[in-house]
Amino acid sequence: MGQTAAADIATIGRISTVPAVLQVISELTGLRFAAVARVIDNTWIACAVLDRLGFGVQVGDELQLVSTLSDEIRQGQHSVVIDKVSEDPLSRDHPFESYIAVPILRTDGRFFGTLCALDPDPAPLRSSTIQSTMESFARMLALQIEAEENLQRTEAAPIKEHKTTELREQFIAVLGHDLRNPLFAISAGAEMLLRKLKDPPNEQRVRHILTSARRATKLVDDVLDFARGSLGRGIPVNIEPCPDLGDVLRHVIAEIQSIHPKRIIQSSIGDLSDIHCDRERVAQLLSNLLANAVVHGDPDGPVEVSAQVNEGHFILSVKNHGLIAEDALQHLFQPYSRPTGGTPQAGLGLGLYIANQIALAHGGQLEVKSTQSHGTAFIFTLPLTR
Fold first, then answer.
1. Quick one: which of 112, 238, 241, 278 has the most CB atoms within 10 Å?
2. Is 285 helix (H, G, I), strand (E, B) or coil?
3. What is the pLDDT confidence band of residue 75, given thresholds at 50, 70 and 90?
4. Among positive and negative, which fits the CA dihedral 216, 219, 225, 228?
């Protein structure tokens, strides 16, 4: 592998949103292999990989099975979408059935590589929304690649800092607009169909589409919040009087309870009428903490939620009867943090990171306490200052 490829792999490795991007793509398309690839001449080199198929492809590997398709993208600089490879006369010899790849083009038009996904099973990929979302991700990655390259040159050329900041702003704009809008359109269309449909089989299919679109939207929102936090802007909050905060938190608890009806969730919500905060962000913080407790806590024990005002502070806590290993505590609020062992969970592993960023954006703090005798408690503390 040449120096150019090694440098490009290192650049992709420094872009902390890439693992989340690959997971969102996998969730959106249903394809179990996704990758960011550098294409140099006729060589396809993996720079980042999500492999749920056990292909064994590692970062730095050259992958021959998609090299001809990547060459087609490089020459034409257009996307390739194949629902069923075995029925495609130009690509039927490849050992997979569904494939989508979009070009990653630098801002000056130069070809970097591809953002691609594939699966041995056929999949309905010929949706304008899927393709446009993938292309938006590719534009987003191109901006981040150039931002990272500029950042590496900042010490030698400080004048590049403004350009790097500009590229990062464009990255967040693409993520927030170009990716969320198609998913919103899918959700709105599915909701409209549900109101019109009367036959159960089709209704079930549309509900599946709606659920998938909402899950993908949640993943994109998590990546957007992560991008804002990791790129130095912080998660935006709108602090205002929230006399209805208690009702907002009760709604979050009811929503999580409906998703996990077998779990016991006990709550104690005090008088919160004098709280100033961003109600949507505090609701998001509680939702993330509560979902984490339900998924990772002791399934036989209750989850306890408390929201009170005490000695000039708003204190929101979520407690479960599980135990977090000592060596895992220090990493809990880092991106992509997950418990070791056990069954792999859906999502990106950003929930606790985002909850902590929301706490910091409010001028508060989020801490965790975990002991064998008392279980695990996440505690959000916010001073009552206007």
1. 112
2. helix
3. low
4. negative
262 contacts 303 by C-beta, under 8 angstroms: no
Q: What are 345-383's pLDDT values in tens digits?
A: 555 577 898 899 999 999 999 999 988 888 999 999 999
- Using a cut of 0.70, tell me whether the model's pTM lies above it: no
Min mean pLDDT across 28-42, 177-191, 288-302 is at 177-191
Angstrom distance (rounded) from CA 348 to CA 386: 34
What does the domain layout of the chain look like in residue ranges?
Answer: 3-230, 240-383
User: Residue 377: in which H helix or E strand, if any?
Assistant: strand 375-383
- Can you read off the two tokens belonging to residue 202? 């089709």
**Residue that wins the pLDDT comparison between 15 and 1:** 15
Least Cα distance to 150 among 163, 139, 138, 140 occurs for: 163
Tell me: the pLDDT tens digits for 142-201? 888 888 887 776 654 554 555 555 555 566 665 565 666 667 777 777 788 777 777 777
Cα end-to-end distance, the chain, whole Å:
58
CA dist 1 and 63 (Å) reads 13
SS3 at position 84: coil
Contact in structure between 260 and 294 (CB atoms under 8 Å): yes
| Separation in Å, CA 84 to CA 29, 66, 101, 378 | 14, 15, 14, 47
Superfamily of the domain at 240-383 = Histidine kinase-like ATPase, C-terminal domain (3.30.565.10)
Contact yes or no for 34/26 (Cβ under 8 A): yes
- Whether the CB-CB separation of 235 and 281 falls below 8 Å is answered with yes
What percentage of the chain's residues is helix, strand, coil (to nearest 5)? 45, 20, 35
Q: In the CATH hierarchy, which top-level class contains the domain 3-230?
A: alpha beta
Contact 242, 248 (CB under 8 A): yes
